[in-house]
Design brief:
Length: 178
Amino acid sequence: MNGRILGSLLILALTGCSDGDLAGLERQLDEVQSRSTGQVVPLPQTPIYQPVTYGQVAGRSPFMVQRADVEQDRDVNTELAPNVQRPREALEAYALESLILVGTLRTDERNSALIRDPDGGVHRLYVGEHLGKDFGRITHIGERALQILEIVPNGQGGWVERRSTLALSDDNEHKRQG
């Protein structure tokens, strides 16, 4: 019985492999072969390479900002340079953008700010204390914001001051304004 089933399956498989229109396929092949001329279209002639010398090698790079006052900036004022000898405070390990003002307090006629660091710790700071990686110093603490004066490099070997604000928001996230 098993032999009969196997034989039937083999006949069915071989029947499925046969092509009923083999003659039509051979006609199409003969037609395609009769149309081909056997000639190949020649490739176009390759242009002759002529090297060009770039004459602007000694000139200004188009990718560098051109500044007319570069020589004047060589006399850099270093009076604003931060005191790198000063011991760093805890919140100077974090970028200012990652710090969140969660509240302000007024006790003993003195304002303080509550700042949350990225690790979840809350720190109480007063005017004059430092935070942020750019030598930020708190200059004023108001009811809903604190003013920060940062000292950042000017790209010419000197330093410039940048004012920032860390503010409370309704959803308890900080806002930084430059």
